[in-house]
Design a protein that fits this description.
Blueprint (H helix, E strand, L loop, with lengths): L1 H25 L5 H25 L10 H24 L3 H12 L5 H10 L6 H25 L7 H10 L1 H15 L5 H12 L1 H11 L10 H25 L4 H12 L4 H8 L6 H28 L4
Length: about 325
């Protein structure tokens, strides 16, 4: 019973923030335009500040073990390639194929993941999650562009443009800067350091509220089959495959939590935004995958975390 309430205390606060955002939207305090602008603000300012601060204040030993980063890179690539082969066999509408692929392999790694990590290990060094995001974020973005361009637009992806987008990604920019400062031993004056810390501390809370504000359950009737496939693969199949592999490789506690976040957290809002900006992509399906994977992940994450806590792995 102790494990049950521990798991509840870890998972529930995260999803109550999402529910708060949903209620604020329906109360008229938040609207679609406001959520869109705040999401842009969170992506370009708050979340990069959080990643920067976690790397900038990290223990240098966090960089000494590349096994986790290599595991993230190889496993995400393997999932992407497998989906590029399998999904077109299950779905014949090109507008939906790329959307389903990115809906399965992408996850809310930074926002929801950092929230879970903070709930589970309050006050501990989160640099492992932040450093892993510097590997995961560019892979997610690059592979999402490839699958949407190939299947939705029927074009060969512009690799030069993809590389440029990766290099310009705010998470990559701040991560490189933070690593340079950490390696050089350069520290900001206390007033600047405190400001960055204060900004970064708001990232998870505001991002989760905005995520809830953007959820809508309209228009699901024509997507039942696609939603069932994508959400089941996202929340059940991938965790069942990769978490045992991570345990077998010796990952535990924060490292295992990183793998859990990578493969068991829901599809991010940016997946819907990217689909909306890709001609020919079914962006409404992308939005519904975000909505239902987010909603149902409260159950799947509870079950996974409860199991791993019971086994003494987290």
């Amino acid at each position: 019973m102790t494990t049950f309430f521990t798991t509840l205390n870890i998972v529930l606060p995260i999803f109550l923030l999402i529910v708060l955002g949903f209620l604020l939207r329906h109360a008229g305090i938040l609207d679609e335009t406001g959520c869109g602008r705040m999401n842009t603000f969170a992506f370009n300012v708050l979340v990069p500040a959080m990643v920067f601060y976690n790397i900038y204040t990290a223990d240098a030993a966090s960089f000494s073990n590349p096994r986790l980063l290599l595991f993230c890179m190889v496993s995400v690539t393997a999932v992407f390639l497998l989906l590029m082969v399998l999904v077109p066999r299950l779905e014949k509408d090109p507008a939906r194929v790329g959307v389903m692929i990115q809906g399965v392999f992408r996850s809310s790694f930074v926002v929801l993941g950092m929230g879970l990590a903070t709930s589970m290990y309050p006050g501990q060094d989160m640099s492992i999650i932040a450093i892993a995001s510097t590997v995961v974020a560019p892979l997610f973005n690059a592979y999402a562009v490839i699958c949407l361009e190939v299947h939705s637009r029927g074009k060969r992806p512009d690799l030069r443009k993809i590389l440029l987008d990766v290099v310009k990604n705010p998470l990559i920019v701040v991560s490189v800067l933070a690593v340079i400062l950490l390696a050089a031993g350069i520290r900001f004056p206390a007033v600047i350091d405190t400001t960055i810390r204060n900004v970064s501390s708001t990232a998870t809370t505001i991002s989760l509220i905005i995520l809830g504000g953007g959820l809508t359950f309209r228009g699901i009737g024509s997507y039942r089959r696609e939603l069932a496939i994508a959400v089941a693969a996202k929340l059940v199949l991938l965790p069942v495959i990769f978490i045992p592999i991570a345990v077998w490789m010796g990952f535990s506690r924060m490292e295992l939590l990183c793998v859990l976040i990578l493969f068991a957290s829901p599809s991010p809002v940016t997946a819907s935004v990217m689909a909306r900006n890709t001609p020919g992509a079914d962006w409404q399906l992308a939005g519904q995958i975000v909505v239902f994977s987010t909603t149902l992940s409260v159950v799947s994450l509870f079950c996974i975390i409860y199991t791993l806590l019971s086994l003494g792995l987290l």
